[in-house]
Amino acid sequence: MASTTTHDTATARAAARREKARRAPAKWLLAPAVIFLLVWMIVPLAMTGYYSFRNYNLMMPSITGWAGWTNYKILWSDPTFWSALGITLLIVMICLAVTVGLGLALALLFHRNFVGRGVARTLAVAPFFVMPVVTGLIWKNMLFHPAYGLLAWLFRTLGLEPIDWLAQFPLTSIVTMISWEWTPFAMLVLLTGLQSLPEDQLEAVRLDGANKWHEFRHIVIPHLGQVLYVVVMLESIFFLTSFAEIYTTTSGGPGTATTNLPYYIFQGTFVQYDIGVSSAAAIGAVILANIFAIFLIRFVAGNLNAGEAR
Amino acid sequence: MAVVALKNVGKQYPGAAGLAVEDFNLTTHDGEFIVLVGPSGCGKTTTMRMIAGLEEHTQGTIEIGGRDVTGVVPKDRDIAMVFQSYALYPHMSVRDNMAFSLKLKKYARADIKQRVEEAAEVLGITPLLDRKPRALSGGQRQRVALGRAIVRQPQVFLMDEPLSNLDAKLRVDMRAEIIKLHRKLGVTTFYVTHDQTEAMTMGQRIAVMKDGVVQQIDSPNNLYQQPANVFVGGFIGTPAMNFLDAAVENGTATGSGFSLVLDAARRDAAGTRERLHVGIRPEHLHLAGNEADGQSLRGEVEVVEPLGALTMIQVRVGDTKVTAQIEPHQQVAMGDAVALTCAADKLYLFDADSEDTLMGIDSGVADQPAA
Amino acid sequence: MSAQAKRFSGANIAFGVLGWAVALLMFLPLIWLVVTAFKTEAEAFTVTPQLFFEPTLESFKAALAQGGGYWHYAWNSVFTAVASTLIGLVLTVPAAYAMAFYPSKRTDFTLVWMVSTKFIPAVGVLVPIFLVYKTIGLLDNVWGLIALYTAMNLPIMIWMVYSYFRDIPKDLVEAANIDGASMGQTMRKVILPLATPGLASTGLLALILAWNESFWSITMTNHAASTLPVYIASFKSAEGMFWAKMSAASVLSIAPIIVLGWFAQRQMVRGLTFGAVK
């Protein structure tokens, strides 16, 4: 009996080895992408971490060496950093609320059957494809401009005092521009979600005597749950790193009213040339992004397992 | 054409506690049609996939045409497979689907054309050759899937529930078609199904599996007449065999609502057992007249199903529901109290604990005795 | 009721009016941009918006003229967007193929890791990349930019292609295996033809994201490798001097991508939902 057992485990081990050999090419197929991401994302990230503990200012090349927590201490006591952090969060939160809210309303609207719906929807999604730099300039010059902008003209026509939007309501203006770009995205994704809603589910609740609100609350919203997650995840990624809209319009101002973390780090690097402190701030931005990621990537993992059960 | 031999074949998935397939032994005859049947999760598909080489077996050896194929990749095993989903390449025409494997083997173009057209002729799909799979009906796709397999003239055909996506009538037609095809080509075939009717009508030998273990391998008739255990008895035959828990005393098996006299052979088989399972097929039960003979099952009729040619009734005998097949002219209504009877030589006896048959199996063709 | 009749019911007319109003409102800034592009500089820069004017191609000519700048940046944009998309696909397809059809215990982890790299903000790696590029001479170099765009889009591309691959029945791969196809043949002859629409929309999304990207272009290039966003951004302090020219240049920069986007919008969104929408 003992000999059969050893024979069996030997066969099993051989089988496992063959199984591994069969998968080996798969590993090589995966390697280039993984290596690429390692080299361009993970290695630089580690270097950022390293620099954040170094004295490193291109303006003061004589001062080098280990800085310990100095850069972080400088950051900690810099009110601009904290305001940048707050502004980053404000932009993300408000833009998420606006784009998801409006996007859902628009998706429901474009889910109705009306004349020229396809064309209307196509017009409405266009802002999503506009490059952010252009968005910034359109809004800054042709809509928000206190003298020559369309909004100024509209206010004057209505007998009101024109507003210098970017100066008086800078953050609102930035949020408006970003939301203009991203509402179509939320709308498109949610619309796709709505269209995949099985008709029989709706018929079932209607037979159960549900009214429109119940239908929306208990069938449509749960069905959109996963899709909403996708919207929030992708939008968070982009909102956290908003840059072009600020760069082309307010340049972070007035004062630091629209300086978010990306812009703060950009200035620290290319205006103040302080590599050490900028790196420390960058680590802060990474941590912030990862707080979002922890919540959102759960969805991805969950989706994986749902797929596995398929 | 080849003999396929599975010797002590087993499969353990990494991380899984038990074996998905355990100690499978079977040597086919050349050109034999073997059906693997069992409920879902019984390991029949895993067994077939191990023969195909889509999964590695972790124990034992598999030989095809006398060659140990352990570690040989599917394409070098000289097998063809028909998938449950057909797995036709949606972007290729029927012709290209069938020619794909030949093209990969670098056959001459004229050769490919001839082989594809011959196979199409055999299956009656010549007019469909230039269509895409999505333009075909389910039955046509099925034929194309068969065509893709036969065009290669492999040593072994593997068919994984090939008919389960067809509607009932088409399934019966295709069943006959596959049998005809097998007879014509004479290629050793493994056929997986969960449908015992399909197994019975198609298989020259049938391997009944449960929980990764082969229960019995035998011809359809022997499976039906000499089931190796309660599971096989219940699985083969529709409606299923009735089982009654009985106490044996003085050569009579009794229980709540029934009393059955055992003949000499069955008395020997029962030996000194005090308890056993009695199996009775529905077609062996008859309505008893008023005259009482030794065999009787009494109870109340719960369901009457007239099927035209015959009528099925369900009778509650004690705690057990017993199905009986009666003549359609026999008038029975729900709620009637009836007595059923069964010839003594039609009773099956199984051990109360192991559930194995007590009757012995005398066919001798089984490669493997009941597990 | 026929679909046509349904469209003209009272409620749907109301929704139609609302839908069109919203659509036009969203589109208005772009209409105004296009209108301005056809004006002279004087007409563009007025307190009362000029609706009636003689359309002129003057501004487009100015933008496209030698030294107007557009072509230099446009070429860089086309080159970086197309090259980064192609390189991205070359890296994506094998990786997604391996994970979709040869999953291992580590596959889930690898995928989640890849998506999580998308959560590393560009500023998180800006400083080291800038310094390394400066050292090895990749600053203001199109290939430096291409590599960054590839890395930026790779996680999303792999995810999209992976979810397209997952929709392809595994049976087809096994059938190809049995038919005698090697891994490479299976990928080329069975999987890629089936995934073409998915690959196309993934490629289009990568193209759009690369085309519109401005952070890396602004920070890593000076002139030689600068893309259109840098050109457009150079108008940011123009203060009414060149509004018409800016508008014309903007129209030229966004029009191709909007048209592409319009064609691909539905496919793209489906892929982006990572399989949440079937």
TrEMBL record, chain A:
Its main location: membrane. The chain crosses the membrane at residues 28-51, 81-110, 122-145, 165-191, 227-247, 280-301. Gene3D superfamilies: MetI-like (1.10.3720.10). The keyword Glycosyltransferase does not apply. It is a multi-pass membrane protein. One of its GO terms (cellular component) is plasma membrane. Signal peptide: none annotated. Residues 85-298 form the ABC transmembrane type-1 domain. InterPro entries: MetI-like, MetI-like_sf. It is found in: Cell membrane. GO terms for biological process: transmembrane transport. Keywords: Cell membrane, Membrane, Transmembrane, Transmembrane helix, Transport. Belongs to the binding-protein-dependent transport system permease family. This is Sugar ABC transporter permease.
Automatic annotation (TrEMBL), chain B:
The keyword Transcription does not apply. GO terms for biological process: carbohydrate transport. PANTHER family: MALTODEXTRIN IMPORT ATP-BINDING PROTEIN MSMX (PTHR43875), OSMOPROTECTIVE COMPOUNDS UPTAKE ATP-BINDING PROTEIN GGTA (PTHR43875:SF1). SMART domains: AAA. GO terms for molecular function: ABC-type transporter activity; ATP binding; ATP hydrolysis activity. Pfam families: ABC_tran, TOBE_2. Residues 4-236 form the ABC transporter domain. This is Sugar ABC transporter ATP-binding protein. It comes from the Bacteria. GO terms for cellular component: ATP-binding cassette (ABC) transporter complex, substrate-binding subunit-containing. It comes from Salinisphaera japonica YTM-1. Keywords: ATP-binding, Nucleotide-binding, Transport.
From TrEMBL, chain C:
The chain crosses the membrane at residues 12-35, 78-99, 111-136, 142-162, 190-211, 242-264. CDD domains: TM_PBP2. GO terms for biological process: transmembrane transport. Keywords: Cell membrane, Membrane, Transmembrane, Transmembrane helix, Transport. It is a multi-pass membrane protein. It is found in: Cell membrane. It comes from the Bacteria. Residues 74-264 form the ABC transmembrane type-1 domain. InterPro entries: BP-dep_ABC_trans_perm, MetI-like, MetI-like_sf. GO terms for cellular component: plasma membrane. PROSITE patterns: ABC_TM1. Its main location: membrane. Belongs to the binding-protein-dependent transport system permease family. MalFG subfamily. This is Mannitol ABC transporter permease. It comes from Salinisphaera japonica YTM-1. The lineage of its organism: Bacteria, Pseudomonadati, Pseudomonadota, Gammaproteobacteria, Salinisphaerales.
